[in-house]
Amino acid sequence: MSRITVLRLGHRIARDKRVTTHVALVARAYGAHEIIITGDRDDNLIRRIEIIVEKWGGPFSARFEDNWREVIRRFKEAGAAIIHLTMYGVNLPDIIDEIRRIWRDGKDLLVIVGGEKVPGEVYGLADYNIAVGNQPHSEVAALATFLDWLQEGEELRREFSNAKLKIIPSPRGKKVIRLGSEGLPINEDDAGH
Amino acid sequence: MSRITVLRLGHRIARDKRVTTHVALVARAYGAHEIIITGDRDDNLIRRIEIIVEKWGGPFSARFEDNWREVIRRFKEAGAAIIHLTMYGVNLPDIIDEIRRIWRDGKDLLVIVGGEKVPGEVYGLADYNIAVGNQPHSEVAALATFLDWLQEGEELRREFSNAKLKIIPSPRGKKVIRLGSEGLPINEDDAGH
Question: Hey, are the CB atoms on B149 and A144 less than 8 Å from each other?
Answer without folding.
Answer: no
